[in-house]
């Protein structure tokens, strides 16, 4: 675990971020399952925007939608969902920061998330530069590589997100079934 | 009658199945649960576009029929995966799940969401091209779209709440 990562946890621990998050989690009735649902609905929007766009680029879904038009249409949804999930996720991370910033699965999740966001930003910035950038024949291969990698990263973000909580309770090594 | 069904010993028998023990006592459970979350998110993520289109809020360039034809197979595929993984988790604690109010609510909401979808596809879908030509989106389509959004969000909330009660 990198030193700076655990230090973020120590920094948040005891700060007003933590007391604020803990206040909401303990005092608002039903807050934990509600905010978790908001987080999962955010994942649903990411599935319907970023992941569906990846599937479109790979030629697997929504063939009638053009890549350029679809990118313009779905990217704002992806950004809103990411910001929403940053907020909904923060309640849990701020509530128990040392737990999260010492958890290797959380660190992996952040790494996968960083990769997925960077790929998205690269894809979008090239798309903005020139209309139809990713629809030109010589760039289709690269677009598909980005889409496949990004699809894998989003799945890993979701998988590792779910496993953060399990890591502390596993009675078996993580790869044993 | 319904309480006899819910307290039947059959649920305890299900928990005793070898497969229930294998899932519940190993890493199969978190793996199946993760797949369930991803599949459920895909169900809602694809339905979302049809709903937004019905409300006139998104993808308005595309005919409802085209969107529905291209997205519904993904919805069904993801729904089947979510159902299989959901059943996989259910059998590990069947007797307590059937008595769990969150689980019961989830089943009711799923049935309602299914009924809304069936009404849309069987009744409204027939006249959809005529409705689309009208300048304003038909009220029934708007109602079906917003009901779908609320019901699926409710399914997610009830589903997430199951883990907080058990």
Describe it.
The complex is a heterodimer of chains A (177) and B (166). Chain A is mostly helical. Chain A has one domain (3-167). Chain A has 7 helices and no strands. Chain A has helices at 3-12, 16-27, 31-57, 67-95, 97-101, 104-129, 140-167. In chain B, helix 4 runs antiparallel to helix 5 and helix 4 runs antiparallel to helix 9 (139-165). Chain B is mostly helical. Helices cover 82% and strands 0% of the residues of chain B. Chain B has one domain (2-165). Chain A binds chain B through residues 30, 32-34, 36-37, 40-41, 43-49, 51-52, 55, 61-65, 69, 73, 155, 158-159, 162-163, 166, 170, 172, 174-177, and chain B through 26-28, 30-31, 33-34, 37-38, 40-46, 48-49, 58-59, 61-62, 66, 70-71, 74, 153, 156-157, 160-161, 163-164.
Q: How many separate structural domains of chain B?
A: 1
What is the overall shape of chain A? elongated
Global morphology of chain B: elongated
Helix content percent band of chain A: over 70%
**Average pLDDT value of chain B?**
92
Tally of helical segments of chain A: 7
Radius of gyration of chain A: 18 Å
- Main sheet of chain A, how many strands, which sense, barrel? none
Beta content of chain A: under 5%
